[in-house]
Specification:
The complex is a heterodimer of chains A (about 120) and B (about 110). With about 120 residues, chain A is an all-beta fold. Chain A contains no helices and eleven strands. Chain A is globular, with a radius of gyration of 13 Å. Classes of the chains: A mainly beta (about 120), B mainly beta (about 110).
Chain lengths: ~120, ~110
C-alpha cells in the first residue's frame, strides 16, 4: 500500500526550530517530486516547499530563508527543517507525492506544529 | 502568483441534489493543470480531479470537472451523505502552486 507518514510535530517556542519527517512506503519516493503543504487552524491549504525527483528545490516566500527541505533516498524519507518559527507557522503539516504531471495524488495524515510561548 | 477564487464560500444542499462549485483563476492556468481535493474534518485532502477533467483512481463518476483557462467547475451529482465536506481547487500549471480558499458543502 502506498503510504506517507509524517512525524516530528510538537509544541515549540517562538524563534525555535523543529524538523519534520515524512516516511514513504509502497513506492520509491526518490522517483517522485514531493511537497510540504500546511493548514493553519480553521484555514485553507498553503503550499510550503517542493523537492523534485532531480532535487530541484522551491519554497513559498513565507518560509524562504527559514525552512529547508531535503530527502534521504536510502531511508525513503522526506524532511522539513524549520527554523525561526513564529506563531504564523502554527499548522498541520502534510507531505504529499507529486505525480509526473504535477498534481498531488497521495497525502499523509499530517503532523501538528504549534508555536507558542 | 495565480490567485484562485472559489465560490460560493458555503453551499447548503440536500442529499440527492447536485452541487456546482466554481474556481476562478487570476490568470490562465497553463495546460489546464487544475486539481480538486475533498477534505473531511480532521483528515488529509483527497484527490478527486486532475487536469481539470480527469477523475482520480476510485472516485465515483458522480464527480466531474470541467473548464479551462481561468474558469473551472466541479460538479457533484446525486449528493451522498459522505460528500458533505470542504472542497479545494489547486493549480499546478503556474509557479508557485496555489490553492483556492475552499468551498464548504453542508447538509441543508
Amino acid at each position: 500500500e502506498v503510504q506517507l507518514v509524517e512525524s516530528g510535530g510538537g509544541l515549540v517556542k517562538p524563534g525555535g526550530s523543529l524538523r519534520l519527517s515524512c516516511a514513504a512506503s509502497g513506492f520509491t519516493s526518490s522517483t517522485y517530486g514531493m511537497n510540504w503543504v500546511r493548514q493553519a487552524p480553521g484555514k485553507g491549504l498553503e503550499w510550503v516547499s517542493s523537492i523534485s525527483s532531480s532535487s530541484y528545490i522551491y519554497y513559498a516566500d513565507s518560509v524562504k530563508g527559514r525552512f529547508a527541505i531535503s530527502r534521504d533516498n536510502a531511508k525513503n524519507s522526506l524532511y522539513l527543517q524549520m527554523n525561526s518559527l513564529g506563531a504564523e507557522d502554527t499548522a498541520v503539516y502534510y507531505c504529499a507525492r507529486i505525480t509526473l504531471k504535477g498534481y498531488m495524488d497521495v497525502w499523509g495524515k499530517g503532523t501538528t506544529v504549534t508555536v507558542s510561548s | 502568483d495565480t490567485v484562485l477564487t472559489q465560490s460560493p464560500g458555503t453551499l447548503s444542499l440536500s442529499p440527492g441534489e447536485s452541487a456546482t462549485l466554481s474556481c476562478r483563476a487570476s490568470q490562465s492556468v497553463n495546460s489546464g493543470y487544475l486539481a480538486w481535493y475533498q477534505q473531511n474534518p480532521g483528515q488529509a485532502p483527497r484527490l478527486l480531479i486532475y487536469g481539470a477533467t480527469s477523475r482520480a483512481t476510485g472516485i465515483p463518476d458522480r464527480f466531474s470537472g470541467s473548464g479551462s483557462g481561468t474558469d473551472f467547475t466541479l460538479t457533484i451529482n446525486r449528493l451522498e451523505p459522505e460528500d458533505f465536506a470542504v472542497y479545494y481547487c489547486q493549480q499546478y500549471g503556474n509557479s508557485p502552486i496555489t490553492f483556492g480558499q475552499g468551498t464548504r458543502l453542508e447538509i441543508k
